[in-house]
């Protein structure tokens, strides 16, 4: 059995809006969330990094009103977002 066949019906193709989870429950495209993890140097306290993108949940590339902000984790180089739908 190939790796691809293990995921048949679990992950949507680019044209699917509905599919099945591993437990055969139906999911919809908006059932997924993403958490961004970024490594970069700590910034001056007046700067907060953001994630921009071409979809509504990422702000439609609007630099004036970003939707996804990153927060620094324990004074490290790791920055993390809240879950994004």
From TrEMBL:
It comes from the Eukaryota. One of its GO terms (molecular function) is carbohydrate binding. InterPro entries: Carb-bd-like_fold. This is 7510_t:CDS:1. It comes from Acaulospora morrowiae.
